[in-house]
Amino acid sequence: MALSNEEQRLLEQMEAALAAEDPKLVNAMRGTGTRRVHRRRAALVWQPT
């Protein structure tokens, strides 16, 4: 299912904030194709305790 324009905008804002806060993590998560999407989704739902 595709993201709405609002959801896409929010995702881009979160990605930009993460890149500014922790560029090493962003570089570690970069990949290609499906692997990249799964890493991004995992990072968005993972909450450290």
From TrEMBL:
It comes from the Bacteria. It holds the Pfam family DUF3040. InterPro entries: DUF3040 (IPR021401). This is Molybdate-binding protein. It comes from Microlunatus antarcticus.
